[in-house]
Amino acid sequence: MSSIGTTDTTVATGAHTDEAAALIGGARERIDALDDRIIGLVQERMAVSAVIQQARITSGGRRVNLSRETAVLGYYRDALGKPGTTLAMTLLELCRGRV
């Protein structure tokens, strides 16, 4: 590898060695793949939530079930700590009102 390629790779990754740059590059590819899967799962969750909301509204209920949302918040908090609550709030917000 030329010194220009080495510099470009290490600068792009923040690494100081070619070995670290290669490791970081591979790990970033894995993260990108995980992000694609996470986005797909969130979109699937949104679709399922819309079905639930529609069924609830059609049967005369409310669009949102606050006790269920509280349980979801607790589940994420228990699994991921305080940032889990923030993540759950974002998911719940994405899934509300899509009907």
Automatic annotation (TrEMBL):
EC number: 5.4.99.5
GO biological process: chorismate metabolic process
Record SUPFAM superfamilies: Chorismate mutase II
Family matches, as PROSITE patterns: CHORISMATE_MUT_2
Pfam families recorded: CM_2
Main enzyme class: isomerase
UniProt GO MF annotations: chorismate mutase activity
InterPro entries: Chorismate_II_sf, CM_dom_sf, CM_II_prokaryot
NCBIfam families: PRK07857.1 (NF005894)
Identification of the protein by name: Chorismate mutase
Source organism: Streptomyces parvus
